[in-house]
Amino acid sequence: MQFDHVGIATPDAAALADLFSDLFDAPIAHEERFEGMTVLFLELEDGYFELLEPHEGGAIARYLDGHGPGIHHVALATDDVEAALAAAHDLDVALIDEEPRPGAWGHEVAFLHPKSTGGVLVEFVQH
User: Which of 14, 42, 91, 127 has its CA 20 to 30 A from that of 22?
Assistant: First the structure.
């Protein structure tokens, strides 16, 4: 596996994208509206910043209400998300997703519960 992206919850993805684009020379690689939120991917040399701005209720809106803006999750790329989930299950890691589901940018994704991963929400992503 390798680092893919860090997901950042924000109330204003466009403003944060402008700042990060200038600050880190990170151009917008992809933008879409997905599951009631704007999702912006800013390209870095070895991965992405994924900016998540909710427009209706949902996990990111709840996260912002409870924690404020900031890092929401860390994503690792895998060639086989089902095998990655099985390996995590074999290690008694609590799974949020028992099976992969559609994610942004058309990727298959699955999340591990932060109670089993040192307080970090981990996402497996298969391109």
Answer: 127
Closest of 105, 116, 114, 9 to residue 125, by C-alpha = 105
Residue 112 DSSP SS3: strand
Q: CA-to-CA distance for 89 and 106, rounded, in angstroms?
A: 24
CA dihedral 4, 8, 64, 104 (to 10 degrees): -50
Global pTM reads 0.94
Please report, for residues 21, 56, 72, 127, the alpha-carbon distance to residue 68 in angstroms, rounded to integers and kept in the order given: 22, 16, 10, 29
Q: Which CATH superfamily is domain 2-126 in?
A: 2,3-Dihydroxybiphenyl 1,2-Dioxygenase, domain 1 (3.10.180.10)
Domain boundaries, the chain: 2-126
What is the Cα–Cα distance from 51 to 81, expressed in whole angstroms? 22
Query: What are the structure tokens assigned to 47, written together?
Result: 């991965």
Read off the pLDDT of residues 57-71 as tens digits, 9 standing for 90 and up. Answer: 899 999 999 999 999
Q: How far apart are the first and last CA of the chain?
A: 12
- What are the beta bridge partners of residue 101? 109
